[in-house]
Specification:
Blueprint lengths: L11 E5 L3 H11 L3 E8 L3 E7 L6 E5 L11 E8 L2 H10 L3 E2 L13 E5 L5 E6 L2
């Protein structure tokens, strides 16, 4: 089904970053995402996309717009996992800046925790029920 606007899918969410190479290392090397695009565009930019291995929606690790800051964003990105406690522990052991504990608010809210990437962009992970 196609929406009245003609929009039918969310494909990417852009996160402005300062150091694309460091962010690729984090999202691919630490989180296990796949790099699906890394191409030059314009005179001095690169277009980089990373995706969870089985996901269809990805994150564009993009340079910030001219004169705008990068990093420290509350991204609004929500990622899911099958085992919230194991995921929390693995990321913590890998040195990722994660919340101290998994938040459990009771039904119907899934268990969740926040984490920050190396540029202090904040993302949320929720456990699938």
């Amino acid at each position: 089904m196609v929406a009245a606007s003609g929009i039918n899918q969310l494909s990417l969410v852009a996160v402005p970053v300062k150091d694309q190479d460091a962010m690729i290392d984090f999202y691919v090397g630490t989180l296990g995402f796949e790099k699906r695009a890394d191409v030059p565009f314009g005179d001095r930019y690169r277009w980089v996309e990373v995706h969870p291995p089985t996901g269809t929606t990805g994150i564009a690790l993009a340079p910030p717009p001219e004169g705008r800051p990068a990093g420290g964003a509350q991204t609004g990105i929500i990622l899911t996992c099958d085992d919230i406690d194991a995921t929390h522990e693995r990321l913590k052991e890998a040195g990722v800046d994660v919340d101290a504990e998994v938040a459990r608010m009771g039904e119907p809210v899934p268990p969740m925790f926040w984490f920050r990437d190396p540029e202090q962009n904040t993302l949320l992970i929720v456990g699938q029920s």
